[in-house]
Write a structure and sequence with these properties.
The structure is a homotetramer.
Chain A (H helix, E strand, L loop, with lengths): L2 H15 L8 H17 L11 H21 L4 H15 L2 H4 L10
Helix pairs in contact in A: 1-3, 2-3
């Protein structure tokens, strides 16, 4: 079992011990992911990157990953495959020749 | 190299070919993660879970993972470890006896 | 009719001409508000405040206000009253003596 | 002084008594707005619209408005004007004939 499978297993076990599958529909998992992403953002509010509390970052990022893995599992998505495929797609939207050193959206390149 | 290391390597390569490390400070990575989480949420807007476009979910979830892995890499965080540690913490906040079948925040249990 | 009533009236008219009340349940309005807030955030991604495109800020902020006013209307909330009441509450959480010049959350003051 | 000016005045006073203008750059105000929008979203997590705690909705929506008004003030934007202008723009993107009873994004109409 690889790391992603192992993490997902641990998350499902935690969920099922609490009988929470009934609440974990994809839409609410997406809400939960947004809420956690926003708590992560709060670690940087009114601050520079350097001033952020790393422990808070670590905790909130863990929550983000938890809901992201749970949502991937709902759709039986292979996380490695979908990220590598997205990188390939983005390589077409952001060709090196145009995008190098430029932080613009592909629609503005 | 495990899956998470492999994904992270691919993301860093994509970033470095475009010379984007200069933009990828932790605060802006957290912003990017929130923006992608919100695009994922859009797949469910005005809809039930069943009506969501799975291709859109897949693409936006891939983007969420991309920025989550890049942020973890910035702080040299081991994704497996931080998620498993968070599960342990949450087990204390949400003891099975109290939380079983209940979708309340731990502060309201 | 004051400005807030006038804006709300215009938003309801726009909605009803399109027969969209059926989609505008509070939960989805809250999703829409988050999605627009995130599009506003995108105006600042990889940028300093000064580099943001003001036209994009204006458009996305208008969308944020639109869904915020629609949600307030759903619950028949008086925007002026709820904001002024929240300021009073926050004055207790952030007393001037403690909070002056300090950007900490009230729980850390 | 109309309601929006009055609310904005109260928010600026609260801010200035605490000497917080130094933290309130537009980028961080946009972060704060996102964080509050997400706390509002939390009122609906794992719930139907009807199950949401209205007091929480009221409080978080007040916070959303607070940062939205503060951001508008930063750019000297007239809230009524930008929302009415956006409605006009949206009327072109969502013509009644095409959009009536349909909850699709204008790009999919």
């Amino acid at each position: 079992m690889n790391d992603i499978e192992l993490i997902t297993q641990a998350l499902l076990e935690f969920r099922d011990e609490r009988d929470w599958a009934q609440f974990h529909n994809p839409k609410d998992l997406a809400l939960a992911l947004n809420i956690e992403a926003s708590e992560l953002l709060e670690a940087y509010l009114w601050k520079s990157s350097e001033q952020a509390d790393i422990d808070k970052v670590k905790e909130e990022l863990a929550d983000v990953f938890a809901f992201a893995f749970l949502l991937a599992e709902k759709y039986d998505l292979d996380v490695k495959r979908i990220v590598l495929e997205k990188i390939e797609k983005n390589a077409l939207k952001y060709p090196v020749a145009k995008a190098k050193g430029v932080a613009k959206k592909y629609t503005d390149l």
